[in-house]
Design brief:
The complex is a heterodimer of chains A (443) and B (312). Chain A contains 17 helices and 17 strands. Chain A is α/β, with parallel strands linked by helices and 443 residues long. In chain A, helix 12 links the parallel strand 14 and strand 15. The longest helix of chain A is centred in the middle third of the chain and has 16 residues. Chain A starts with a helix and ends with a helix. The chains are: A alpha/beta (443), B alpha/beta (312). Chains A and B meet through helix 8, helix 9, helix 10, helix 11 and helix 12 of A and helix 7, helix 10 and helix 11 of B. Bound molecules: iron/sulfur cluster. The site of iron/sulfur cluster has 13 residues of chain A, from helix 2.
């Protein structure tokens, strides 16, 4: 990835011996740059050149695996600054911090409950961060053990003291926790520990320059399973540093070619939640928070879900009967598509109207009403099939369905296929409350 | 090791709009949101709180509470909004809606004038949301508010002509509203400028969704629009209006007082509104129309931090 033919050419032996099957070294370099040849075809390439070219073909942001077992997850491998350019690949891991000076078990049990269901999908936090606030190695080890015994989530071990980290890793090392952090004073010891347990290591700088320095030193010690912390904690500095690190990584500045960690921790849980959401959108691989209260975490988890959806792949909801506000047999039946935004708009505006209703999303491969109609996926036939398959007309006593106003032309044929009344609803979901008032409740 | 800071060289900037009797400035940025290290954000994002011209029917208690004694009095409500520290007041002419009172243009214009006269911050006037009706009432409102330099909307592809003509004639600015499509936003801006309204008197509304309800669509439209503005696409270089309160307070995560697994409503509801707002702020939103004064306070505290310098 990334290297031009000329950059590769500089590393080749320039013998033009044709043994690679290309007329010249330059032609071979061009083939390599286009991904159409393998370096192995040239028998004369030096080891140094091979290493340089391998490194250059690594992804811009390394992939880092965190934890072991079913709650293990990955961060990194990102390729863009803006989600609309392609997509964000690996959702930010959310870590909740517990101090070794508090009741670790009680807080970890709270963290375990931060699991939310959204349209049938489960979303949860990802890590427990244990902080060595006591400064005492034995206390830290105890806290790490309690955390590990009480949660399946991977751990983030926070201590600047290599001795305390060593004790903690004796307990938790096999589960690949994140080691936080190697700084200018302790990096040799921390690298040795991380290496021993093959655990991801955070490199913490005091600013971007210092961070780049440290990463080079750590890499020189032979360790590349890294996560970056620029040291910034103020919102505007973090946004700037996160942007710089991502930009530099995409320009293949190698010291910054790793995922990042950002600390949103704040005594004010509302500020903390807003910061955390910002860091989710602005490139953090891991974001750390103190609050284990659902009202502060749900917004962050929801934003992560939204920002990390693939903009090129519309997300769909399941095609089934959705019951809003406990509908009875006289409740209206609204037909829409299974494009999640269409469904959410219809559901939101129906709830706003306070009229209990059924929503029937037709499977249109997750595309919106007008697009699906144009593409022949939202037709009298697909509507009739869905209505029949789900048996919704047997649940109601009025033998009628409501279709979106934008596809009013489908009403006649659909009515014929289903033998029921097909009412033309509003064009935009925002018109639903007033439609119910004027057209449904007066019926 | 010295890192060479990666700075974009933007060639253009967002238009700067001036509103209200004291000339509140919005927009004008020459960098992506809060990247102060490579350009200017001469004006911070601004806030307005909504005032209805009749008692709102579907507001949850937590939202009515801060305005409990003024919900039937738009003038008193507007003054309260100013006391809470809003940069602007956003008056929504709900009574004109055919489902509610179907109030006439003259009636709502009278209310708008009374509100404008009671405050010294800029007034945003919003129609009832029915395009045809707004096309009738907003020109009359614009006339009644001559000289107040209001922001009036929403003009859509169907009703922009009458609204734009009046906004232009009486010295106001307009909100141009298009559904979730950057090309439609741009097209409407073009149509409006073709009627002679200068670009620095248009703000566009991409019809945002709330957190959890399609926020990512408007988020990406705003990012793309800001990239467009900074690289010279004039027709995308207008301030962006975000109807955050209206959308966030539709979400059950904000409205529902009793869902134990989501925690108590107070912080949850406020965070639903502020997180929707801060997310659009980092994507390029400029004018934030909110509903709860606490959300506004929290949002402003966030913006205070985001506006701090971060030059290298
Ligand atoms: S085999 Fe190697 S040295 Fe020979 S031409 Fe190909 S690239 Fe050049």
């Amino acid at each position: 990835m990334g290297l031009t033919g000329l950059e590769i050419f500089k590393q080749l032996p320039k013998k033009n011996c044709k043994e690679c099957g290309q007329p010249t070294c330059l032609a071979f370099a061009m083939q390599l740059a286009a991904g159409k040849a393998s370096l192995d075809a040239c028998p004369y390439v030096s080891d140094a050149a091979r290493e340089a070219l391998d490194a250059a073909s690594a992804p811009p942001v390394a992939l880092v695996k965190i934890g072991a077992g079913e709650k293990a997850f990955q961060i990194g491998n990102e390729t863009v600054l803006f989600r609309h350019d392609k997509r964000f690949e690996h959702p930010t891991g959310i870590a909740i911090q517990v101090s070794d000076t508090e009741d670790v078990k009680a807080k970890v049990e709270k963290i375990n409950k931060l699991v939310f269901d959204r349209v049938g999908q489960v979303h949860e936090v990802n890590m427990v961060a244990v902080a060595n606030d006591s400064g005492d190695a034995a206390k830290f080890a105890d806290a790490v053990k309690t955390a590990q015994d009480n949660t399946a989530y991977p751990l983030l071990l926070i201590s600047g003291d290599a001795g305390a980290m060593e004790k903690a890793l004796e307990i938790a090392g096999a589960n690949k926790p994140v080691v936080y952090a190697a700084d200018a004073n302790n990096y040799e010891a921390m690298v040795a520990l991380a290496k021993k347990y093959e655990a991801p290591l955070v490199v913490k700088g005091s600013d971007l320059n210092n961070l780049a320095d440290l990463v080079e030193k750590v890499v020189a010690l032979g360790y590349k399973n890294l996560i970056l912390d620029s040291g910034a904690r103020e919102l505007s500095k973090v946004v700037a540093d996160q942007t710089q690190i991502r930009r530099q990584a995409l320009k293949l500045f190698r010291p910054f070619g790793y995922p990042t960690i950002a600390f949103a921790n704040n005594d004010d849980p509302i500020m903390e939640s807003m910061y955390a959401s910002t860091y989710v959108a602005k490139y953090a691989g891991i974001v750390v928070m103190n609050s284990a209260e659902p009202q502060h975490i749900l917004p962050v988890i929801t934003l992560r879900l939204n920002v990390y959806t693939d903009p090129q792949k519309p997300i769909a909801v399941e095609s089934k009967i959705y019951e809003l506000l406990n509908p009875g047999p006289d409740a209206p039946v609204l037909v829409t598509t299974n494009f999640s935004l269409s469904y959410f708009c219809v559901a939101g505006d129906t709830e706003a109207s306070r009229v209990p209703a059924y929503i029937i999303p037709v499977d249109t491969d997750g595309i919106s009403v007008l697009t699906a109609w144009a593409a022949g996926k939202f037709t009298p036939e697909t509507i009739a099939d869905t209505v029949k398959k789900l048996g919704i007309l047997e649940k109601v006593n009025h033998n009628s369905i409501i279709i979106p106003g934008g596809v009013a032309v489908l009403s006649g044929k659909t009515a014929e296929l289903l033998g029921c009344e097909v009412i033309v609803g509003p064009r935009e979901s925002a018109g639903i409350p007033s439609f119910f008032k004027q057209r449904w409740l007066n019926k | 090791m010295a890192v060479t800071i990666a700075k974009e060289r933007w060639t253009s900037k967002v238009a700067e709009m001036t509103l209200g009797p004291k000339g509140l400035k919005v927009g004008g940025e020459s960098t992506l949101p809060f990247l102060h290290f490579e350009g200017e954000m001469p004006n911070r994002p601004v806030t307005a709180l909504e005032v209805f011209d009749m008692e709102p029917q579907d507001w949850p208690d937590i939202l009515k509470e801060p305005f409990a004694d003024v919900l039937n009095d738009p003038v008193a409500w507007a003054k309260k909004v100013v006391e809470y520290g809003a940069d602007m007041v956003a008056l929504r002419l709900m009574s004109a809606h055919p489902d509610w009172k179907d109030a006439s243009a003259d009636e709502v214009a009278k209310t708008a004038k009374a509100v404008a006269e009671a405050i010294d911050v800029p007034l945003i006037v919003l129609g009832c949301g029915v395009e045809e009706k707004d096309g009738q009432i907003l020109p009359v409102v614009a006339e009644a508010l001559e000289g107040k330099k209001c922001l009036i909307g929403c003009a859509t592809a169907d009703n922009y002509k009458s609204i734009t003509a009046a906004v232009n004639g009486y010295g106001h600015s307009v909100i141009a509203s298009s559904p979730l499509d950057i090309n439609l936003c741009k097209q409407l801006n073009i149509l409006i400028t073709e009627m002679g309204l200068p670009l620095d008197r248009i703000a566009f509304d991409p019809l945002v969704g709330a957190l959890g309800y399609g926020i990512e669509y408007a988020y990406s439209i705003m990012e793309r629009a800001r990239m467009g503005a900074l690289t010279g696409d004039k027709m995308l270089a207008t301030p962006i209006v975000c109807f955050v309160g209206m959308e966030a307070w539709k979400a059950k995560e904000a409205k529902d007082p009793d869902v134990p697994e989501w925690g108590p409503q107070a912080d949850r509801a406020i965070l639903w509104e502020t997180t929707t707002a801060t997310t659009f702020a980092i994507a390029g939103g400029t004018i934030f129309i909110l509903r709860h004064p606490e959300s506004m306070k929290r949002f402003n505290a966030f913006i205070d931090e985001a506006m701090k310098p971060n030059a290298y």
